[in-house]
Amino acid sequence: MRLDRLLAMTMILINRKRVRAQELAEMFDVSVRTIYRDIDTITQAGIPVVTYQGANGGIGLIEGYRLDKHVLTKAELAAITMALKSVSTSYQDDHASAVLEKIQGISKQQDQVKESIFIDFSPWGQQPHLQTKVTMLKKAVESCTHCTFHYFNRLGQASQRTVEPHLVILKGRSWYLYSYCLQKKQFRLFKLARMHDLQIVETTFQRKQIKIEDLPWDKEWYNQSKTIAFTLAFHHKVRTIVEEYFHVENITVDEKGRLIIETEMPEDEWLYGFILSFRDDVEVLHPQSLRKKIKKLAGNVAAIY
């Protein structure tokens, strides 16, 4: 992550009188050009970085500069520490660990702030293989290296994929890879849990321009041509779960005391499974096409038993 690298570089410059750009590039496994771009960013943030020429040259801070206590307050240091600790629950990042160690060193010089929140991204029961996938894909994204894997879609259909990885995403409760698929010739969102035999290959690619702030994977998922408007009626005993999914402000109560939800989602296997997961505590009021689909699936389940 670039933020981790910028923080680590700042701490190195504060703790060391002078360091060469090539050394920083090797330390963070990036190009020298990237290091100089990062230095420009640090300078724009108000930290006086100076480049020294000659045999003993390198990058350093203006003589006598120290990190002012107002640059990072103890609350801000606590917030950064919390974020880095939370990230560390998902994948192994040596740079993040180095930054965390340095920030904790600074925090010891100030009054300690009691930690009041901790975000644990790891799944229940621990899944080291998932953490390994996230770590591998993060490195592939940073190095613009192709990945190959066997992928199983929602219907259980298998395919071999070669992709250009662009982002590793934690969405809801699951990890995904947003990448350009060479087979489909377009960007696709792949769920890490459905990847098998993940391999990082030696060939590299030119990263494509994407606007992360636009959440392009959300737009792809919520394509109106794939969505359906429907109404569900839930038994009041599952209110807590319904509120978790749909939020209180979207819930109305009918004359029978049922919780009514009117919403719109893509109609796919996930939606069918979601509705069926509530067993007899939910009823599809409309449209009729969705009622018939759920009735048929429920009948198929009943036929097995």
TrEMBL record:
PROSITE patterns: HTH_DEOR_2, WYL. This is DNA-binding transcriptional regulator YafY. One of its GO terms (molecular function) is DNA binding. The lineage of its organism: Bacteria, Bacillati, Bacillota, Bacilli, Bacillales. Residues 2-57 form the HTH deoR-type domain. Pfam families: HTH_11, WCX, WYL. Keywords: DNA-binding, Transcription, Transcription regulation. PANTHER family: PROTEIN PAFC (PTHR34580:SF1), PTHR34580. It comes from Bacillus chungangensis. InterPro entries: CBASS_pafABC_assoc_protein (IPR051534), DeoR_HTH (IPR001034), HTH_11 (IPR013196), PafC-like (IPR028349), WCX_dom (IPR057727), WH-like_DNA-bd_sf (IPR036388), WH_DNA-bd_sf (IPR036390), WYL_dom (IPR026881).
